[in-house]
Structure formats: C-alpha cells, structure tokens
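Whiteboard transcription, Tuesday session. T.W. wrote the structure tokens on the left side:
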C-alpha cells in the first residue's frame, strides 16, 4: 500500500484523500455545468447550489459518521471531528444532506425539486467513487479476511482483506453509468433519475456491507445488520413506490 500522504512540508500534510475529494467536487461542477440546461437550471442557481451541496454533503457525511458510527471516539477526541482530510465521511449522511438542501432550495426559489435532485445525483454518484478511492489509499474501512485473489494486504493488518473500498468505487461507477443513460431517456418522468439513484445506491451498499470488517464498538448492530445496512433498507423501501410510479411498463 502507498502512503496516504502525498507531500509533507513541515506540519502541513497534503493527502491523497483531500486531493481526491477536491477532484470529486471539481468533476461534479463540470458535469452540472455541462448538462444544466437539460434540467432547466440557470448558471446562477448552479453556482449557488454547488456551494450549498459542498457544505451540506461534507457536514451531513461527517455528522452521520460521528453520531452513528464512532460516537465514543469523537466524544473523547472532539477536535478530530474537524479532521475530515483523515477520512470518515458516511455516504448516507451525504445523501441526507443533499436531499435537505435540494428540498430547501427548491421551496425557497420555487424550482421543481426534481430539477435539482435529478441533476445533482449524477455527479454525486461519480464523486463517491473518488472518495472511496481515497478511503482505499488511507487503508480505512477495510473488508473482512479473505484468501481469494482479490485480497489485499493493508498497512496495520497482518492478513489479506477484501478491498471493499474498490468494490464501492466500481459500484459507484456502474451507478453513474446507469444514471447517465437514464438521463438520455426521452420524455422521462421527473424524479426517475433521483429515485433510481436512491434505490441502486441502497442495494449496492447493503450487499457490500456484508464484507466490511467493522471494529468492535464501531456502529450499532441491529437484527444482525449494521447501521449502513439498516439505513439502506429504509432508503430502498422508501424508493419503491415513487420509482414504480415513474417507470413505464
């Protein structure tokens, strides 16, 4: 495994995770600028929304991580809450943050909610792949022990582990590709892209979580499922009806 630190100057560390996160937002900005007209959004709205989403996704992802995954650690080390460049962003929290911002902005500016949501979930799917690659380089959130050819030796672990971060990179790239093709559907109903994202995101995450090796005390376990899986089940169930209403048979 390579070092998560690209460059160190004195006390300043430039980490791959931070660079990949920046690339995620820059790529997302380019995508929404390129296709915004298809969703009837002005450049001014795009610029405003991007700032809101930048703040809300990081804040939501961090809060979800702190509150539901490793509360005791952050409670005892509160300064670490602000060290987002070290990793520790929960994708479910990012999705919730995005949803709330889109809902707020649509009501405030009288813009159809799905004009915003359908557009922004596309770059979010791609950006998530960048973030998960950062998790892989950090050597965090590793998978369970495996003897398969897919196993990777992570720093700090003596045996081979499933590189579930890379599984998530792959699943997010698939999700991005699907959403991009759904976008091309003629006369699609508003919300089809958004609810497709919500359902597939929850399905991919639910099954990948079976391979995650969660440390003792990291996240709460219910019914044999971890927090991410429970959240995924809830999102999946919520998505069934609105997605069904938007699919033509």
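and on the right, the sequence the group agreed on:
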């Amino acid at each position: 495994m390579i070092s998560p630190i690209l460059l160190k100057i004195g006390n300043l560390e430039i980490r791959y995770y931070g660079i990949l996160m920046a690339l995620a937002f820059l790529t997302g900005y380019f995508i929404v600028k390129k296709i915004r007209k298809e969703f009837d959004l002005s450049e001014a709205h795009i610029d405003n929304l991007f700032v809101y989403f930048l703040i809300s996704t990081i804040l939501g992802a961090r809060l979800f991580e702190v509150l539901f995954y490793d509360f005791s650690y952050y409670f005892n080390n509160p300064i670490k809450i602000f060290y987002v460049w070290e990793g520790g962003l929960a994708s479910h929290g990012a999705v919730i943050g995005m949803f709330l911002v889109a809902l707020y902005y649509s009501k405030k500016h009288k813009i159809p909610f799905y004009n915003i949501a359908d557009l922004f979930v596309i770059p979010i799917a791609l950006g998530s792949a960048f973030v998960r690659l950062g998790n892989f380089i950090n050597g965090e959130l590793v998978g369970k022990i495996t003897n398969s050819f897919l196993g990777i030796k992570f720093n700090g672990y003596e045996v081979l582990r499933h590189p579930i971060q890379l599984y998530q990179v792959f699943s997010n790239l698939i999700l991005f590709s699907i959403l991009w093709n759904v976008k091309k559907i003629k006369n699609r109903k508003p919300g089809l892209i958004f609810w497709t994202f919500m359902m597939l995101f929850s399905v991919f995450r639910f099954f990948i979580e079976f391979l995650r090796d969660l440390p003792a005390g990291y996240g709460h376990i219910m019914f044999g499922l971890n927090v991410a899986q429970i959240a995924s089940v809830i999102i999946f169930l919520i998505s069934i009806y609105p997605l069904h209403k938007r699919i033509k048979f």
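Someone added at the bottom: Residues 52 and 101 are 7 Å apart (CA to CA).
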